[in-house]
Amino acid sequence: MPYYVDVTSERLSNIREGLTLIEQVDRDAANNLDLYVYGITSDPQIIDAAKEAIADSEELDESDVQVAEVAVAIPLSSDTIYYLTGSGLILRREDFTYQGRQGEGVRTQTFAFSHYHPRVTLNNFSKLAVASSDAWLDDFLKREGSNTPAQITPNVRRTEEATQPGAPAPAATPAPQTPGRTSSLKISELVEKFFLD
């Protein structure tokens, strides 16, 4: 049994009619379906939000992260489809996957780490699927995506002052002693003096 089924935007609209009917009969049952819409995109606004989320979670500058495409998992409901086929749905906490650096495989992240939350419609996605869970998103990206790895190259950040080639590094300045503190040697001398006198 497949975990997700490819769909078109027209088929997704038809699914909305069925979900609306189920929600009218039993909204709790519809909420327990745990269905998702998967979508693959290289749309610049979604990629920018994904880059920001990746950079924030890895404590990098956004310019250090280059991602070609992402796959997004959006919880499926009649309302979700309504927004995706109309004015758009704002991605706030949805998960997305991307192809990690060479050897890392597919990585999962959330738009919650992004300060920018893009508004998306079905037109932003090149491939769509309906899935029984968000757990198969990485598999969907591997099978349907271009498998272009991300390029994450943190900028070099100096921790010490640069020196001229061939010149010795400046000697470290000793930390100043804090007034009023006594070293452990002086304390031991005080203790001996107290007990011996």
Q: What number is the mean pLDDT? A: 84
Low-confidence stretches: none
Total count of helical runs of at least 4 residues: 6
Q: β content, as a range?
A: 15-25%
Please give the largest β-sheet.
6 strands, antiparallel
* Count of extended strands: 10
Radius of gyration: 28 Å
The secondary structure category is alpha+beta
Task: Describe this entry's structure for a reader.
This protein is α+β, with helices and mostly antiparallel strands and 197 residues long. The protein has one domain. 33% of the residues lie in helices and 20% in strands. The chain has a six-stranded antiparallel β-sheet, sandwiched between helices. It has a two-stranded antiparallel sheet with strand order 3-10. The longest helix is centred in the N-terminal third of the chain and has 17 residues.
Briefly summarize what is shown.
This protein is an alpha+beta fold.
What order do the helices and strands come in, and which of them pair?
Elements: E1 4-7, H1 9-25, H2 27-31, E2 36-41, H3 44-57, E3 65-66, E4 70-75, H4 78-85, E5 89-90, E6 95-99, E7 106-110, E8 119-120, E9 127-131, H5 137-144, E10 151-152, H6 184-196
Helix pairs in contact: 1-4
